[in-house]
Amino acid sequence: MAVSVLQLAELALHGAAFLCGIVCASALTVAQGEFGGWCILYGTVSWNGTALVPKSFSHISLCYFVSAVSIVVALYCFSSLLYGIYGCCTNESQWDRTWLSIALVVAFIILFFLLVSACILRVGMDAFCASIVQTKSLASCQEAEHKPWATYSPTRFYSNLYSAQASAWVNVFLWCLLTTRLLVQRRREAPFPLLRRNDPEWSAETEAIFGGRPIRP
After folding, report:
1. pLDDT score recorded for residue 203
2. 85 CB contacts (<8 Å, ≥6 apart)?
3. Which residue in 11, 22, 1 sits closest to 181, CA to CA?
4. How far is CA 176 from the centre of its chain?
5. pLDDT, the chain, mean
6. What pLDDT digit, counting tens, does each position of 113-131 carry?
7. pLDDT tens digits for 9-43?
8. Most distant CA pair in the chain: distance in Å?
């Protein structure tokens, strides 16, 4: 059983992408749980003199969308990892051109949704932290973990949001590498073009086979 370096690299990328998806979804879910299950992305906060008070939350479907994308991509990566391990053990990891095209389309779709979810996390977290800092009671968003909150008791919401955001962007980078890998592999599997009669290669081949054209007197 001979396993190439590219196959091992592809397995490692799928494994890392699987872990990033799990970390992103779990960290965002824990951050939601600290606020009673509400989505704090793009939320607003005020200061009542003694504690931070959440004024508004985003629709819960926004956080569900980010978590769902991470989980679905993680499951796809896990299945691809298992298939890659099976292919390495049985020497059946080579795909034909059709399956490469399908995998490439799926990779572009996954990359698009990952990029959208990562942007939602980034902009939503920045908006929530900007609302906290604008209360003028804190110098940074991370300090809010150690301040009293009205109704809720979040102690690691910033750390969880940061972990979710970092995992999402790392996942985007990993899928850029995986998509590039599929593009290179598909280019290598491209069929050779057929020779035409007017091509110089055609003349060279026919002369080599038939011994050149007869010279007319």
Report:
1. 54
2. 11
3. 11
4. 8
5. 84
6. 999 999 999 999 999 999 9
7. 888 999 999 999 999 999 999 999 999 899 999 99
8. 110
Q: Considering just the CA atoms, what is the radius of gyration of the chain in Å?
A: 27
C-alpha 62/C-alpha 205 separation (Å) is 63
Quick check: 50 pLDDT over 90?
A: no
- Give the helix/strand (H/E) hosting 128: helix 97-133
DSSP string, 140-202: SSGGGGGS-BSS---SSHHHHHHHHHHHHHHHHHHHHHHHHHHHHHHHHTPPPPPP-TTSHHH
pTM, entire model: 0.81
Name the one residue in this structure whose structure tokens are 């190439």.
Answer: 4
Q: How far apart are CA 164 and CA 65, in angstroms?
A: 13
Listed residue (162, 138, 109, 118) closest to 46, CA to CA = 138
3-state secondary structure of 30: helix
The token duo for 18 is 């699987």
Q: How far apart are alpha carbons 42 and 27 in whole angstroms? A: 17
Cα–Cα distance, 74 to 15 (Å, whole number): 9
Which residues lie below 8 Å from residue 37, measured CB to CB, with a gap of 6+?
60
Which tens digits make up the pLDDT trace of 84-98?
Answer: 888 777 766 556 677
Cβ-based burial of 183 (10 A; exposed 0-12, middle 13-18, buried ≥19): middle
Name which of 23, 105, 25 is nearest 65 in CA terms. Answer: 25
Residue 210 has pLDDT above 90, yes or no: no
Residue 144 near residue 160, CB atoms below 8 Å: no
